[in-house]
Amino acid sequence: MSVFKTLFIILVIFILQACSNYNNVDKSPSIIGGIVDNVTWYLDESTKVTDVNVTIPTGANSILCAPYNNTTEPLRPCTLADIDGDTDPFDTYEPELAVLFSTPSFIPSTTLPNAVLKQKGKSTRDTFQKSYKVKLDSKTILYKDERRLQFNKQAFDLTRMRNKLSFDLFEEIPNFTSLKTEFVHLGIDEEDKGLYTEIESYDKEYLLHRGWNKDDNLYKAQNFTFYLDPALTLNSVGKAKNLLAFSKVIEPQRGKKQTKLLEMLRAVNSDNSDINSVINKYFNRENYLTWLAINIILGNVDTTTQNFFLLNPLHSDKFYFLPWDYDDTFGWANQFGKTGFYSKWQLGYARWWDSPLHKKFLTMKSNRDDLDAMIYKLRTDYLTDSNIQEKIAKYKLLVRPYILSAPDVYYLPYTDSNLTKVAQEWEKECNRLTTSVQKNIDNYEAQKGDPMPFWQSFEYKDGVLTLLWDKSVDFEGDEIVYDVELADNYDFNNSIVDEKSLSVSNGDLVLSSYGEVSYSLASSIPLKAGDILYMRVTAKEKDDMNNTQVAFDSYQKPDNKFAHGVFRFELK
Fold first, then answer.
1. In total, how many domains does the chain have?
2. 529 domain residue, yes or no
3. Average pLDDT over residues 106-124
């Protein structure tokens, strides 16, 4: 046999083996059925406050950026002022600092930088006390097996414990996952930054520590309602065509393609699909119900468009809901006895009515019954008063010394600067966390008979103003009537229109074929271009006027309080 013939045979064998190996690649998803967290991952959670030091090397920093207050200037070494001045979480300006990260149990062998520091969060970027991210340079020398560390300030939470309390509770709940957390005392370049909560990051390590595939798809909801947003456009290989625009809606954290996400969204938004069939194919029903129930019980209102992650295992159709950002829970909006921060519709399942997934699911009574059952189960077995109180008692011993001393004592959202009164307010708020849970459930129960919320709009044509809004829905099918108000001020003094109990069936209102209700003003009412007007429509059950609902719209008044259900517009 010639040498060339021998080489040819060897080459053919090699190709056949390679094809065989490719076909034998394991394509089974890392999660099949219910989601199961790795409980052993949390065993080394700190039971004390950990000292964390971030040191900025002397001299010019190795990472360059433009000045935070004039990003058009030439690049120069980044500074901590640039990090703190990064107020827009969605623009392309993301200054970083090369830093040296250390703790008593994580002592670097060098004085050279071993990490990068940047700011994190959205609303907290406007506060004096910032939240930060630290990413270690090494992929192998990690802090407690974590590479990406998130230091959350919880600037709006008087107790400074709502996030940790929530995630510690999640560790015990089936069909759900949690994130490892610990209280830390952060110093940056020898400046005391006070108490923080370090929260595990959704990243490659998060997946691997739970025995899943590092290439599983992870998404962070930014402004995501499960609609087919035009920004969610893919290229020919299944990746975001415009990653920045895509990420402003839902941000890919892990994974290489978004084809399965778009497939799921098309099914959710299809008029021809049964929602329970969609849930069974693209979600895990128990995980979904658990996520809904947890947010009702803890009062996590802001979960329609953000504050959750989605996990889609590679080679799987399924999407799992993962928790994120629970510092606005446990009655947060009622700190110091405040009321009126949330609208009526936000207190029940109507908070999710603007999402096609949740809207279709909750429309079915059997699904609402299943949600009730899940709320009862979690409240009875896991989110009990005794369980919550036990955790709070431990946290109070850790948190109290820090929040009653500099720097945190100067920036707590308290109502009195007297140190004794601050301590009293903090103690009272800590004790109120437990009672808020039943209050959240009571609010949910109280909203069950109410119609669903809707969006308001208007049309001004040929001098005629028409008020428009989406038809409200009543789960029992009762007829809905509307109170219609229009004024030139948000307090609705000297109303232009003040009509009560208008009905489509009586001909007071017009209902279009696509579900829009309209009310046209009389041409004799004097209006002109440039007028600023305020509209407020209230939906009511005709047979039970106590069951009412306002619109999704809210107007933020000059005193920063909200006029709920009010839509402000200008005639043009």
1. 2
2. yes
3. 93
Against a cut of 0.90, is the pTM above it? yes
Nearest-CA neighbor of 247 among 118, 151, 255? 255
In a domain, 286, yes or no: no
Render 171-207 in DSSP notation, one character per residue.
TT-TT-----EEEEEEEETTEEEEEEEEEE-SSHHHH
Question: How many other CB atoms are found less than 10 A from the CB of residue 40?
Answer: 8
DSSP β-bridge partners for residue 251: 220
pLDDT tens for each residue of 207-226 = 999 999 999 999 999 999 99
The angle at the Cα of 466, spanning 462 to 472, to the nearest 5 degrees, equals 160
Q: How far apart are the first and last CA of the chain?
A: 90
Q: List pLDDT tens digits, range 493-521.
A: 989 999 999 999 999 999 999 999 999 99
Tell the residue number behind the tokens 């893919």, with chain if given.
Answer: 234
Q: For the chain, give me the number of helices (H) and strands (E)?
A: 12, 24
* Domain ranges, residue 49: 39-160+178-200
On whether the CB atoms of residues 245 and 231 are closer than 8 A, the answer is: yes
Residue 25's pLDDT is: 64
Number of Cβ within 10 Å of residue 485's Cβ equals 19
Q: Which two tokens stand for residue 172?
A: 């015990």
Backbone angles phi, psi at 200, to 5 degrees: -55, 145
Residue 123: per-residue pLDDT: 84
